[in-house]
Amino acid sequence: MTPAARSTVTLEGHFARDFAELAVPWQAEQAPDPRLLVLNEPLAAELGLDPSYLRGSDGLLLLVGNLVPNGATPVAQAYAGHQFGSFAPRLGDGRALLLGEIVDAAGHLRDVHLKGSGRTPFARGGDGLAVVGPMLREYIVSEAMHAMGIPTTRSLAVIATGRSVRRESLQPGAVLTRVAGSHLRVGSFQYARTTGDVDLLRSLADHAISRHYSGAASAEHPYVALFQAVIAAQASLVAQWMLVGFVHGVMNTDNMTISGETIDYGPCAFMDAFDPAAVYSSIDEAGRYAYGNQPVMAEWNLTRLAEALLPLFHDDQEQAVALAEEFLAAFRGQYSAAWAAGMKTKLGLRNDVDDEVAAPLLVELPTLLKVGRIDHTSFFRSLGSAARGHAEPVRSMFMDPVAFDAWAQRWSALGPDAEVMDRVNPAYIPRNHLVEEALASASGGDLYPLERLLSAVTDPFNERSGLERYACAAPEDFGTYRTFCGT
Hints:
Largest sheet: 5 strands, antiparallel
Shape: globular
Low-confidence stretches: 1-7
Helix content: 40-55%
Order of helices and strands: HHEEHHHEEEEEHEEHHHEEHHHHHHHHHH
Number of helices: 19
Structural class: alpha+beta
């Protein structure tokens, strides 16, 4: 490593320095033959990084953690978590590393983080590695979410390591370089609480306030204000998931961020036919994290956060619990308001349309879609054409359109704005059959399908000639879709 290479990028080590109890200094495994698969040049520019440098040999070593800049201390972060309802007091980054923090062009501090960089002390018997397919899945879906305006961790790059990784068969290994406002999770606070060290818990909460909710610092009760801010952020986030038909797939408490960013795209998917019971994760046999359960599970996770924060709410346990219950009770109203406002916009309804008039339309629509097994994304996009007077494309989706016609007549009478609808209802999402096609091709060395898919989903509202297949529902022979966590 040359001195020039070390000075090209500067990363801070705030978390590593300030939270030794929650950070194990560690090094990424050496990548035998790193090769760039995809680089997010707009994100690189946001971070003040030179894409030509990142594409070079030193840049690739940086992106897989084999070149550590001055000032950086890569660490595996410790956290706990409820996984499918069962508490695990010690999880942590088993195959990931926080390289450090970087100040972006807007002056915000952001984490630079690796997935698939090798075993750490938290690996729990795993090999610590990742393969091309799941890492590219996170890249595709996280960047699609960002393009739709949904808070999310971002993907900077995916690098093939040149190492074969044993899964069901030998597969090409890869590392994802991820960027986030932070990697603080509900599980981070659960871990701090299990130590019994209230000063550590308080320091972590102060860090979260400083990093994400600076206004809470001047509140009469800063830690209560922090909790309220996280509730509001998660209510908004999950409402946005629901509005676009996104199924996270594994909403464990270690996969819920304090910042309100979507994190850890493992067995995630977008719904095809609308179904509240939609489950795509191969391990979610009971449907705990089904599409329709996501708001309830978010509230459950926030309850676990409240339990972790109780010592900071009040010295008296009963009063602390009472405060937690009071503010948790606000989640459902905040979520419902965010969902209803978003749905009104998806339907092109003006702000001055009375909620009592709009509410029946909002309540009845999910039942219409479920009964008709209607493609979620295509329906809302085609409904924009109906607002322009061309109702046949959306009407033809229903085998028996009588009920839809009655609903559409009342909706149309409210004067929906088609242009507003087109700005919020994507034409292109990472459709599951297209994602699988792109991942299979990329794993075999052909990146063209990946590039075409990314071109569509990173500009999702602007329909373009030549991308028609990316706006189409899955073919009938696609069958039951299952995703895997990628570990």
